[in-house]
Design brief:
single chain, binds adenosine-5'-diphosphate, binds magnesium ion, 708 residues, 17% strand, 25 helices, alpha/beta
Length: 708
Amino acid sequence: MRAARQGAQRTINAVVRLVAPPNIDAPVATLKVGSANVERLKKLGIKTVGDLLLELPFDWESYGGPTPVARLTVGESATVVGTLGAIRSRRPKVNRTGLKTITESHIVDDAGDELPLVWFNQAFVGQRLKSGDRIAVAGLVRARKYGDPRMSNPHFEILPAGAAAPTGIGGLQPKYHLVKGLTSKKIAQWVAAALPAADHLEDVLPAEIRRRHQLLPVAEAVRNGHQPESPAEYRDARKRMTFAELFELQTAFAMMRAQQASEPAVPIPYVQEVIDTLKVGLGFGLTRAQRQSMWDAFQDMQRVTPMNRLLNGDVGSGKTAVAAACVAMAHAAGMQSVVMAPTEILARQHLAKFRGYLEASFRGLSVELLVSSQSAPERKRVKTSAASGHCALVVGTHALIEDDVQFAQLGLAIVDEQHRFGTRQRELLRAKGRGRPHFMAMTATPIPRTLALALYGEMSVSTIDELPPGRIPVVTEVIPPDERERAYELVRAEVRAGRQAFVIYPLIEESEKSAAKAATAEYERLSKEVFRSPFTVGLVHGRLKEKDAVMQQFVRGQIQILVATAVVEVGVDVPNATVMMIEGADRFGLAQLHQFRGRVGRGAEKSYALLLADDPSKQSLDRLMLVTTITDGFRLAEEDMRIRGMGELMGERQHGLSDLAMRALKEPELVNEIRQEAEELLASDPDLARHPVVARAVERRLAVTSIS
Ligand code: ADP
Ligand code: MG
């Protein structure tokens, strides 16, 4: 019994004493976290003791000091000290939600007032606590429909006789980023065990920079950040950690900029006639944003420093026309271009668009396709045409970056859906010419401009923030689970009217394998029950070999209803598709939902996006409702950021940046200051020979950062 009476803090201290100070580079397993937790931490990007220490809490839960029951406020977290009343565990009568045990009791404070307590599915509580124990509880005070307010699932600590306050619970408790199976309390315990090693952390910030910006040394920041004595200590720690992250990133950018500037490109002069000719051939008027983006690019291409530009525009905003204008300009200067897309089907659609935009208007401008499914003689023909300088543009997939693909005069390299390619692949494409080609990356990820500038610090950014006129808005509806049949009926009605539909399944459990399984099972059910023959139903997921073939069938209309997982590239033009039904819509970011929605509404017909939520809570539905009222992808991205944090928006750790650093990116002044420090450091030590810690950090950063 005595052993059970140890408070959490004492357990932590014991752990700290038993284990020698851990090595900073040692795997987290050395902290005895258990193999399941090693895997969970890995999902958070935490592999070593050092990683664990560098990840500060993102917020704090304030329970305050011990409060008399009479002064508690419903809806607030609090700590209460007193004596435990009778305690009993029971099984619930009805069990619909996986509820196995309910443990009920109450605490009587020193004034004699009672507060009911309840724990759900925590059977061990009934074994650890007994009536008459002096304990502290900390948790949220909730109102009840019947009876007095109570605390549910409170943390608790058994107090030694006479103690007035707990040591391990209550007060301020850290909130860490979590995955399923982890709790902030567990992480706090491991961090406590690791903290003695903090002194061995390398400080990436040179002392001079720390002094100029009044930043803490890393060890102190880590100690104060995890176990602050005051809110100010935590703020200062966080400020320092954020600064260091952005400093690493900005130094990486500055190095890349310096390197680019040292490799000249062939300038491509601006020729007005090219644009005039292009406009006549397009058959539509350019939007203001398209004209601005073209102009940005033309100015870049006139320089010896190679263009390095991100073209950021919503789905359907007309990025291809901007790219085509650049290709035409390069052609007029006698230079070839290359466009790389992530899938064959996208490459083929590009081929059709670029040919449509360019071949009839510009004499001698020919566009070719290079993908791995072509016959060997055909590939050979295209390669010869590229190597001889005969064709002006080659559109293709990864097949483009193979060794034997050469260009006589490559002046411009363009990558579509740039996030789908790694740094190395983009580098290989840019290495296809003699000297360095101008480079443009296209993305439909709606990143707000300020953020894009800070994140892609080595690139310039053009944003296409308007859609071509005349698009019919997609009717977007949030459908409650019990009205699913209505969604099915709409799909059937549209298909009977000759149109097509997508049904999207979310990535559950972060594995494409299980998503593929879920989609496959749903496909079976849908094709046998919901959309029985004569409806034709197809399935694509990331693990399917014949993805492209299935997509082609859908494009040709041989498949009417396409069941797909989210990881599958559906970035194809199927103007005949009018319904986008999204299952588990609450699992997606708003901006991502908007992207799916952009796959329909491309033709003249009225289109529908139907959002079905697994989680029917008001909060979840309210969030989805935003997609029905906001039609601008950038605004939805901002909302995502507000609600779910930047990390969510950008995909899991895509940039290796913490949420806090992402948030700080929104402060242009801070980013500027940090950028200046990075540039000054590089000016005095160009290859960071005298700053090995910075050099290592930059290298790590570049490995995880998705930039050009
Ligand atoms: P995305 O930015 O998603 O790559 P696309 O370049 O594929 O968009 O353009 C989507 C569709 O809009 C294409 O069919 C294209 O021809 C058409 N389009 C592009 N620009 C305009 C415009 N200014 N006016 C009308 N239609 C346009
Ligand atoms: Mg496109």
